[in-house]
Amino acid sequence: MSKKVLVVYYSLQGYTRKVAEMIQNAVEGDSFEIQLEKPYNLVTAYTIGILHCSNGHTPALKNQMTNVQDYDVILIGSPVWAFTMSPAMLSFLKTHDLAGKTVIPFCTHGGNMGKYFDNFAQNCANANIAQGKDFRNVKSADKTVLAQEIEDWVKELSL
Question: pTM to 2 decimals?
Answer without folding.
Answer: 0.94
